[in-house]
Amino acid sequence: MKITGTEISGDAVEVSGAEIVVKCLQAEGVEYIFGYPGGAVLFIYDELFKQDKVRHVLVRHEQAAAHAADAYSRASQKVGVCLVTSGPGVTNAVTGIATAYMDSIPMVILSGQVPTHAIGQDAFQEVDAVGITRPCVKHNFLVKDVRELAATIKKAFVIASTGRPGPVLVDIPKDVTVAKTPFHYPDSAAMRSYNPVTKGHPGQIKKAAQLILEAKRPMIYSGGGVILSDSAPLLARLVKTLGFPVTNTLMGLGGYPGDDRQFLGMLGMHGTYEANMAMQHCDVLVAVGARFDDRVIGNPGHFGQVPRKIIHIDVDPSSISKRVKVDVPIVGHVPDVLEELLRQLEPQAAKVDQKALAAWWAQIELWRGRDCLRYDRASAIIKPQLVVEKLYEVTKGDAFITSDVGQHQMWAAQFYKFAKPRRWINSGGLGTMGVGLPYAMGAQLANPGATVACVTGEASFTMCIQELSTCKQYRLPLKIVLLNNRYMGMVRQWQQFFHGNRYSESYMDALPDFVKLAESFGHVGMRIEKPGDVEGALKEAFARKNDLVFMDFLTDQTENVYPMVPGGKGLSEMILSEEL
Amino acid sequence: MNAPSPYTLPFVETKAMRHIISILLENESGALSRVAGLFSARGYNIESLTVAPTEDPSLSRMTIVTTGSDDVIEQITKQLNKLIEVVKLVDLSEAAHIERELMLIKVRAAGKDREEMKRMADIFRGRIIDVTESTYTIELTGDGTKLDAFIEALDKTAILETVRTGASGIARGERVLRV
Ligand SMILES: Cc1ncc(C[n+]2csc(CCOP(=O)(O)OP(=O)(O)O)c2C)c(N)n1
Fold first, then answer.
1. Which of A113, A134, A193 to mutate to test the interface with B (most CBs of B within 10 A)?
2. How does pLDDT run across A25-65, given as a tens digit for each residue?
3. For chain A, which has fewer Cβ within 10 Å, the N-terminal or C-terminal residue?
4. Three-class SS string for A82-136?
């Protein structure tokens, strides 16, 4: 690799590896580092102690360090950074790293390692961090020579944040943090084997424009790539220019304003009726930064039964024609491609077949008329959907919402109409229970002063509950919205639908008193048991600007998420609430 | 609706074919396990894998023989290209190429079989590179089928040991794989 760079410390004074680590983070403009100390990283902690530019957030479990760094990135478009010690520090972080990997989140994980001479000796707290994380990182490094440390950290930041982003781990043996060398931080890292594409192929973009203008039943389908590449304004311009319907994946929510008439809602397994039907029946599909994964297209064969032309814009060539074959692949950085596509389309927008488009919209409105997200508003028990609807109203749609994994996640996705990108923070790819609270911590630190709420389930929340302590220490005034159905609701739903109502191990017995629990951590706790109290409780909670408020909503235990496309079924084969 | 578009049909599983993929990768520790890990993690086949540094010691040249349908091979090459250490790769099977594999085989060669064994080695253009009173060690190069044929031609009970390197490949003509 070629390093070009400036010398930061002017003279050739030798500094330790630990100091180099901290200087690199400073040079990268890292504001927060989430971590947990231990033997292998003590010298790095010592250097952190001596400065105040990079602020360290002490989590209570390394999994949360990775999740919080991940969410910090999602909510800010910067690279998230975490620091863990060797052995159990790294293994605890693996779930967080894999979670970030599946959602393509730019993150740098610094892990301590036993001294180089002890590697391979089954030393105390030794694990093969590079080996363990290899399948769940974009790349990783073991730094054996202090002279390579700064350049490696630079590479890590470059690789994490360019192309299809992802986590990069840098494993640093303890002796490397002690060894000394002059510090130079390169300002770029050119690698002959790493050159992510940017501009899409002009010929392909031209073909795409042609197809788009000939469409009779068009559909735009966008995913997490639009969020990650900050292309939401360009997507909105495309949708508005053409007058086409648009849907977002779970990862893509906020990529297009959720309250706009052209927005059909989320698609996929728990997508809306209108989004799934339009996806299935369109004749020209424009996929932008989305990957036709199995939670969107459960059955590629069924999807292929309707003739349609597919244009697929993605920065990762391996995402194209992986599950669904496409007609016009465009490999490129989403904003560059959209920019060029708009340049070609805008002068010709009048060529869109307005008659056909009007007929298509009439069909879509019929589908929309099914009101697939309807639920019993007169219920005497709190319906979880009601809580999310009221949350949306009380926060005026302007909060950062994190979620865990389960039914509550789907209701949050369906009922909170995200107006802006990076406001919806959840684990879409790995589906990791426990992310909700650490995600909220990362989002809050990235956006001090903003409203951050975590919509969670009692089973998920319990998985990283120790972080309530971190929230106290750093005075994070999060609002926890617990949809407490005393079940692993999503598991219970599958057992009801597909396993003959045998609720094997999905009942959450012996739950704590969450109000007292929150109070014991020094927070405010509330229990809400009646639908009539939901709005008032939310208002009261969000008015407490400086407190973490834990709201335990006792919700309907039997409520299910609709619509539902059962696994392996076609998009139009949805189970709707009215059919049960 | 008209006939289904040929494009959006579910992948018609094309027949699994043998492919020989040549890769230039950074000669760094860990690069090999990244490639091998990719194959096992994604469930791709590896029939053989050979790797050694090139004339430029910063680069290794790897040859992987795999089988898969067209879609699978497309994914394999895309996924390999995503690995940071992979500098360049080519699917040699897409055009004319040469494959060679080296086999070392130790056979029983005593009494009346001794002469016959030497004759077989000659027919296959093998070289006897080590000799004891009762054994020969034969070196044989060729493509995989030639080596298979040699083994087939021998009396099974005469074979004491075989070592094969797996295929190495290079394009015919002026096509080259280099940075
Ligand atoms: C770490 C982890 N373990 C198991 C699962 C499988 N799983 C998916 S949803 C779910 C239940 C979640 O229950 P809860 O958090 O109470 O949310 P609810 O579905 O009731 O809203 C489980 C166990 C998972 N996604 N993540």
1. A193
2. 999 999 999 999 999 999 999 999 999 999 999 999 999 99
3. C
4. EEECCCHHHHHHHHHHHHHHHCCCCEEEEEEECCHHHCCCCCCCCCCHHHHHHHH
Does the C-beta of A559 come closer than 6 Å to ligand 1? no
Name every chain A residue with its beta carbon within 8 A of the beta carbon of B5.
304, 307-309
User: Is the beta carbon of A506 within 6 A of some atom in ligand 1?
Assistant: no
Q: What is the pLDDT of residue B132?
A: 97
Rg (CA), chain A: 25
Using left for φ > 0, alpha for ψ between -120 and 50, and beta otherwise, residue B33 falls in alpha
Nearest beta carbon to residue A318 from set B4, B7, B78: B78
Q: Where are the alpha helices (DSSP H) in A474-533?
A: 489-498, 514-520
Taking the mean position of all CA atoms in its chain, how far away is CA A318?
20
Per DSSP, the three-state class of A167 is strand
β B97-108/B86-91 pair status: unpaired
Token representation of residue A493: 């739903």
**Which strands make up the sheet holding B17-26, listed edge to edge?**
B48-53, B59-68, B17-26, B86-91
pLDDT band at A197 (very low <50, low <70, confident <90, very high): confident
Based on the number of CB atoms within 10 Å of its own CB, is B133 exposed (0-12), middle (13-18) or buried (19 or more)?
A: exposed
User: Among all residues of chain A, which has the CA nearest to that of B85?
Assistant: A193
Distances (CA, A) of B63 to A117, A332, A467, A535: 33, 29, 49, 65
Closest CA to A555 of A378, A382, A390, A376: A382
Q: Is A413 left (phi over 0), alpha (psi -120 to 50) or beta?
A: alpha
Per the annotation, the verdict on A174 as an active-site residue is: yes
Integer Cα distance of A234 and A245 in angstroms: 15
In which region does residue A442 sit, left (phi positive, over 0), alpha (psi from -120 to 50) or beta (all else)?
A: alpha
| Residue-level pLDDT at B14 | 74
Of A138, A317, A325, the CB nearest to B11: A325
The answer to whether residue A293 scores a pLDDT higher than 50 is: yes
Q: Is A214 a catalytic residue?
A: no
Q: Tell me whether residue A7 is one of the annotated catalytic residues.
A: no
pLDDT bin (cut points 50, 70, 90) of residue A227 is very high
Task: For a ligand 1 pocket test, name from A433, A437, A454 the mutation site with the most ligand atoms within 8 angstroms of its C-beta.
Answer: A433
Q: Whose CA is nearest to atom 2 of ligand 1?
A: A433
Strand partners, B130: B137
A552: helix, coil or strand?
strand
Looking at residue A5, its pLDDT comes to 52
Angle between helices A17-27 and A149-161 (to 10 degrees): 30
pLDDT per position as a tens digit, A108-127: 999 999 999 999 999 999 99
Radius of gyration of chain B (CA): 21
Q: What tens digit of pLDDT does each residue of B78-113 get? A: 999 999 999 999 999 999 999 999 999 999 999 988
Kindly compute the dihedral angle of the four CA atoms of residues A369, A492, A467, A135, in this order, to the nearest 10 degrees.
-90
Distance in angstroms (rounded) separating the CA atoms of residues B64 and B48: 6
DSSP A247-290: EE-GGGTTSS-TTSTTEEEE-STT--HHHHHHHHH-SEEEEES-
Query: Would you list the DSSP string of A284-330?
Result: EEEEES----TTT-S-HHHHTTS--EEEEEES-GGGTTSSS--SEEE
ipTM: 0.92
Please tell me whether the peptide bond between A106 and the residue prior to it is cis, using omega within 30 degrees of 0.
no
A325 touches chain B (CB under 8 A): yes
Give the Cα separation of B57 and B10 in Å (integer): 44
CB pairs under 8 A between A and B: 65
CB B76 within 8 A of CB B66: yes
Which of B4, B26, B37 has its CB closest to that of A135?
B37
